Amino acid sequence: MIVDLLDExxxxxxxxxxxxxxxxxxxxxxxxxxxxxxxxxxxWIFLILGICGVIASLYTDSILLSSLLGVFAFSSFxxxxxxxxxxxxxxxxxxxxxxxxxxxx
Length: 105
What we know:
Shape: elongated
Order of helices and strands: HHHH
Number of domains: 1
Helix content: over 70%
Radius of gyration: 17 Å
Largest sheet: none
Number of strands: 0
Strand content: under 5%
Structural class: mainly alpha
């Protein structure tokens, strides 16, 4: 199994680091697209994803998988803040507005 291989060569920490980098990197375009199509109304989706990630992390025996689920969960929570900040970036003109949506500003 991959976990045994990572443990044998002491690569678990590096693997978690690379996966953390990829998870956080994946959330950036998700924030941009979510705000573009749904605005800040989608924050609750990330709340549910975060809560599910926390619960899954607590019920997982594997340290490796539990760590990655925890990273996913708290990246989801952080995304709630980022969606609101993305709205501000759109307001400043740093990102395009969706012409099919009505904006508060």
